[in-house]
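pasting for ref
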Amino acid sequence: MQLPPLTQRFVLHFGEMGSRWGINRTVGQIYALLYVSAKPLNADEIGEALGFSRSNVSMGLKELQSWSLARLIHQPDDRREYFRAPDDVWTIFRTLAAERRKREIDPTLTMLRDALMEQPGVAADIHAQERMRQMHDFIERMTNWLDDMHKIDSATLASLMAMGSRVQKLLEVKDRVKQAFQFGPDVPAQATANPPPNPGAEKA
């Protein structure tokens, strides 16, 4: 099975980038081949196309299945197992984000939490701990946001991305509505903060 030039470029590039994303080159290339393939492929076809041994292909497919990046498919009158990548492209980005979080973000959060539990005894460490607190709060806020994003279905995520700068405009509208309800529909904020003097109170 000879890969056409464009497919080969994509597969090789994905294998190279996979090592930077937290997956090994073999797994990255297998996923890339399954993703662009017009039909499900069996292990022999994958090994022939990529020049991998059967054992490497088998291990790579098991790893992809554990991440839900490869689906097992059975063909009529064929006892061999076939595989294909999920149609939803968001799946790979969710998986890569989760892997990078486990390797890079979670260990940093653990270190910062441990550091914030200490009682520094010198001024330099007190200052350093406060800076660590700021970093911890920011990273935790971002990871919580990512957790929320993972719960949103792909169609909704695509719609949110398509909105672009309109999201910021919606937030500005939300702030104006909140301010209006806080001070009342007919009373400006400045008037509420500085009420007019009461003549009766002065005479008293």
